[in-house]
Amino acid sequence: MKDALTYKKALEEIEAIVEEIENETADVDVLTEKVKRAAYLIKHCREKLRKTDDEIRKVLEDFEKEENEDADIE
Question: pLDDT for 17-38, tens place per residue?
């Protein structure tokens, strides 16, 4: 089974690609592929952040709802 691409792994790979480009060590023949990979990784990270944000908001909403219900009981 292939390892899932975590946010941390994706970010590290993006940073490595950026460093190669900034230091001009990226081979011109593979530069397009590296830029495409970086774009994919950025999209992946954004999706992870959105999903995490949505999950946190839901947890907080549920918590607030429980707090309000507890306050109504008292």
Answer: 999 989 988 788 899 999 999 9
Orientation angle between helical segments 7-22 and 28-73, nearest 10 degrees: 150
> What pTM did the predictor assign?
0.76
Give how many domains the chain has, as a whole number: 1
Residue 31 inside a domain? The answer is yes
Q: By residue range, what is the domain housing residue 68?
A: 7-73
Q: Which residues of 30-65 are buried (b: 16+ CB within 10 A; e: fewer)?
A: eeeebeeebeebeebbeebeeeeeeeeeeeeeeeee
Lookup: tokens for 50: 């959105």
